[in-house]
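go over this record:
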Amino acid sequence: MRASRSGMSQVMVGRDDELRRLRRLVDGSEPSIAMLGGEPGIGKSRLVQELIAGLPDTLPVLDGQADPGTLSRPFEVLLDAIDSCHRSGGLDPELLRTVTDASRSMIDRIQAGLEIVRLLTTPGPSIVVFEDLHWADSESVALFERIADLGGGRLLVGTYRPDEVTRRHPLADLLTRLERRYTVTNVRLERLSLADTSMFLKSATGRPPTYRTALSLHNRTGGNPFFLEELLKANGEANLDTLCDRPLPWNVAEALRRQLDDLDTGELRIVEAAAVLGRKVPFDLLAAVTGHDENELIDALRDLVRRGLMVETGDDEFSFRHALTREALVDEMLGRQRRRLHELALETLLSTGSRDYALVAHHARGAGRYLDMVEAARRGMHVYLRMGSPYQALQLAEMGLDELPDDVELLSQGARAAWLAGLLDDAQELGRRWFDTAATREERADALRLLLRLSWEVGSSGSMQQRVAALRAEIEPLGDVPAKAHAFAAIAQAYMLHDDTEQAVAWADKAIALGEKLGLPAVWVAGKLEKGSALVNVAAGVDDGIKLLNEAAQEAEQAGEWLLAARALNNLYNLLPGGPADWAAALERMRTFAERAGFESLAGAAYFQGRARLAVQEGNLGAALAELESARRRDRGLLRTRNGSDYHGVFFAGLLLESGELDKAETVVRGLVEQSSDVYTMLTQVSVPGLQFHLACKLGRPDQARGHLRTVLDAVGAVGVTGRDFAHDLISAGLAAGLTVDELRPVAEAIDDPLFDDAWRWLADGQLAEASGDHSEALRLYRAAVAEPSMLLPAQRGSGHLGAARCLLAAGHLEEAREHVRAAEPLLARWAGWRVAELTALRGRLGLAAPAPAGAGDQALTPREREVATLLAEGLTNAELARRLYISPRTAAVHVSNILSKLNLESRTQIAAWVRSREPA
């Protein structure tokens, strides 16, 4: 990639799908065409360079670029491409002279150009790239079209800016003709999403931005990578958070203002007014402020849209195409001019009774009318909370607090909005200010309820217990008032979250009784929710708990208590009868309710984690990892708390260890360890040391593992018990690493608790009995663990069957052992890692062939995959495959992985055997 186009981010962000599409075209055996379109600075060149960087060095690449001055220089893009090709030194000089000889006919020159391309790109796959075709000379454009006629496995890529292709531009006709004659892959690069903007900032600076910073810069730049880079360059080494308020770099501001050079005075006044009116400008408001009648304004806006300066974003609503253009305009205006426009906008909004309170507050502040601003903020924050827009409500609350910093209503609604939006640090700060400012016990109790929940959210067990005590003391003198009823439900929730079922049920019953007495549906529904959530964790209470959670979900929905409805379904969905399809439907309902409540943690993180857990419950490890990958891409870099907690990290690292992806697991675990050094939470007590132990075992570091195990056991001693699957994972990893039964037995003993299903305990005890050599006892325990009904997940049930098979094999009962292996096969059919390796080993010892997967045989593989399989049977490595097939080593690895997955095989040796089994005798 050209150094000048490489960008600041070390990793290309937000273009994975587009890159995969292009790589598939490179791997094809037929010629193909891809057209990459997008606005300036959107990353077209970066995408091309990432594509080229992943190819083998031997694959021919011609990469030419047009510049604004090349329109008058025939074949300039071809000549630039020839310079980029390492093969060009061997070209016949006569061909080059023909191309550049203005006295030769155009046909001769195009034919010479085609011959040059053919010689430089054959034999085998190749890539020809013509960048910035909107600037290309007509001869280069004509040649581009003719290259498409050449035979061979060639990918022809053209990049262009759609907004700069006029009807008279030679590229306009070319695009139409290409679509008529060939199958063209059109790739339109859009602006980066908020999550992608955060990832870009993190990659470019080495540190993740806060949520507010990411959102501010995303709104400021519209997600355009070029503008982000320019702002970062101007910021230097300064704190990233300061970048939101820094003035535009002069080069960016000047480039943006040049868009205004051709505007007449009337149009300039319209865009200046629009710039002050905000990011989204209503037509009627713009008309009122500028004094234009409807037809005049329509004509002016149509011209501004045609020029690409503004866009119509909705019905009667307009925005600047680039938000920074608006900023550059406002920076140039006089303060009095800005205030006058704000005043006109405010008067118009107030006279029409506008309910767009955010807009009213914005213009009231701009006009210096602060009482109007506070009034709009008060009204608006309630409206936006009901709409499920907590971040907008928080912004209004903070706007009002700038003027009235000790206002209890603004503090209370702002704290709640920050919590719903997932901005926990902001929520805690506002919550503490709310508590300190509160004048009555009821107000302090309400503040403590939120602070109590926040203690759980940030993982602070100590402060949670202190706040429970403080809340109980605060409500003790109160009579039967709503604040006391709500406090009962909050205390029940705190005990439920701490797995103190007895206390949770007792306080939930108090909430239900007082809520019904006072006629508060939100309270009695919350009581049912907390009671049901506590009971489902006790074997004897599961049925009653499910019933209560169902009632809570239905009653909350009827009452419009969307947050309670979402929480009830989140705690219920995978306990419902009917299986995975019904669970998935309930999870989607949960997300809908969470979005209506504006509760970020359930609508986003918990939803994706729920989908991953459903995939695990279906025995599909690949799907679970894919869901968590999607969730982490969505959340990466969006620091909603100072410690930057990785919501999915523990679960994700555990699945990576399960699948054997140790490098990725080590990276995730390292991040969790670094995070836990800043904040001591219940999570860091057990889970993170457990992952460190597991990883050390997998990496063959037993002494290091023993140290981590001591930490885990100390934490388990403090907490009381440990998770079922967590204990099983530790025992499995420890035994595989050579730790003794005596060292691991305390882990199994820690799950000897009525909260947990016996099957998990039997599985753990069976593993230890087998490791002790007591195969008879181990067989009994394994059989008990996998007997129906069982709470074991498919992968663990598969391991139970394999354990039983090993015990039977040791006793010489081969046929019974085979039955258990066959029972394990469907349970592990979509799994991977060490469990599947054990299955494969037992098949070999028992003389069992791998079961044929659905669609197995030649039909399961694509033609390219069959070709790869044949070469694998010859013993080729990935690097050798890449050289033989003119593909990248990464692409070769993907083909190998797909073959293993489709044929349900575990190794290259098995692929070779599969190939040989299909050879004619």
The chain has a mean pLDDT of 85. The two ends are 51 Å apart (CA to CA). The longest helix spans residues 501-518.
